[in-house]
Amino acid sequence: MSALSNSRFLKMNGLGNEITVLDLRGTSLLVSAEEARAIAADPRSRFDQLMVLHDPVTPGTDAFMRIYNTDGSESGACGNGTRCVAWAMVADPVMSRLVGNGLVLETKAGLLPVERVSDTVFTVDMGPPRLAWNEIPLRDPYPDTRAIAVETRLAEAPELQRPSAVSMGNPHAIFWVKDAQAYDLRAIGPKLEHDPVFPERANISLAQVVDPGHVVLRVWERGAGLTRACGSAACATLVAGVRKGLTDRRATLSLPGGDLLIEWRETDDHVLMTGPTELEHEGAFSPALFKGAA
Ligand SMILES: N[C@@H](CCC[C@H](N)C(=O)O)C(=O)O
C-alpha cells in the first residue's frame, strides 16, 4: 500500500489551471512519478500540476515545493500553483501555520516570495527571467534568444518557426501570432514541445499582442497538455514581449481561464504575477488509487 493512501489533499485551481495541493511537511515521504500519475488519473484529484509541500530547506523560507505534471515529470516553476499553495498556507484550517499574509516558498529553481492581495488573490515574485541559451535550456548556443529557430515543420502552420525562448525556472517558447485562436494547439503543441532544439522539452505559447498593455495567450504545457492558464508562461511572454519591443513592462495577459497581471520590474529584474485562486474541494487519496504504483 502507498504511504500516500488516505493523505488529505486540496483540489484547487488558479484561473482554471487545475492544481492539487498535498502537504507532506513533517514527513520524509516523496511522491514518485507513478504515484503522481495515479493521482492525476482520479477525477477527484485530477491536476495539471500537483504541488507537494515539504519542510523548508533554506533558512527563512516557509516550505519547499516539488511540482509534478500530469505525466509524472517535475517542473521548477508553476505560477498558478504557487498562488494556490500560498492560499492553503495562509487560509486552509489544516495547512495554515503562518501568521500574516506574506510567505516565501522554494522550488528547485529558486525562492518565490508571495503576498496576499485580498482573500483569494496573491502576487508571486517569480524572480528574474533566465535568458541565456544554456539556462533555458536550448540545444544550440544562440547569442540572442529573442528569436530562435525550431526544426519542426508544421504542415498546418508553417509560419510557426521563430519563437522567443525564456526560462522562468522552466522552459518556455513563445510564438508571436496575429490570432491565437486560429491554431489547433492540441495538435501542434506536442510536436513543438518535443522539438529537438529543447533538450528538456518546452511549454509552448501562442501570443497575440492586442496592444502593449494586453496580450492574449494560449498555452500547451510541457507534461500536462492544453491548460486553461499557465502563470509562468504569462511571465515568460511578458518578458519576451518587452525584449522584442512589443509590450510594456506591465501588462494584462488574457488566458482562456481569465486574466493575470504581470510586471517585469526594472529595479531588480524580477517578474511579478498577480492572480486569483479557488478552492474546489478537499479529499483523501483512496488506497485503491495507488494499485500498481511504486
Ligand atoms: N501551469 C504552470 C506551469 C507548469 C509547469 C510546466 N508544465 C512545466 O513542466 O514546466 C504555471 O502556472 O506556471
TrEMBL record:
The keyword Transcription regulation does not apply. It holds the Pfam family DAP_epimerase. It is found in: Cytoplasm. The active site is at 78, 78 (proton donor), 230 (proton acceptor). GO terms for cellular component: cytosol. It comes from the Bacteria. PROSITE patterns: DAP_EPIMERASE. The record marks 172, 221 as: Could be important to modulate the pK values of the two catalytic cysteine residues. InterPro entries: DAP_epimerase_AS, DAP_epimerase_DapF. One of its GO terms (biological process) is lysine biosynthetic process via diaminopimelate. It catalyses: (2S,6S)-2,6-diaminopimelate = meso-2,6-diaminopimelate. Keywords: Amino-acid biosynthesis, Cytoplasm, Isomerase, Lysine biosynthesis. Substrate binds at residues 17, 49, 69, 79-80, 170, 203, 221-222, 231-232. Pathway: Amino-acid biosynthesis; L-lysine biosynthesis via DAP pathway; DL-2,6-diaminopimelate from LL-2,6-diaminopimelate: step 1/1. Its EC number is 5.1.1.7. The keyword Isomerase applies. GO terms for molecular function: diaminopimelate epimerase activity. Belongs to the diaminopimelate epimerase family. PANTHER family: DIAMINOPIMELATE EPIMERASE, DIAMINOPIMELATE EPIMERASE, CHLOROPLASTIC. Homodimer. Catalyzes the stereoinversion of LL-2,6-diaminopimelate (L,L-DAP) to meso-diaminopimelate (meso-DAP), a precursor of L-lysine and an essential component of the bacterial peptidoglycan. NCBIfam families: DapF (TIGR00652). This is Diaminopimelate epimerase. It comes from Microvirga aerophila. The gene is dapF_2.
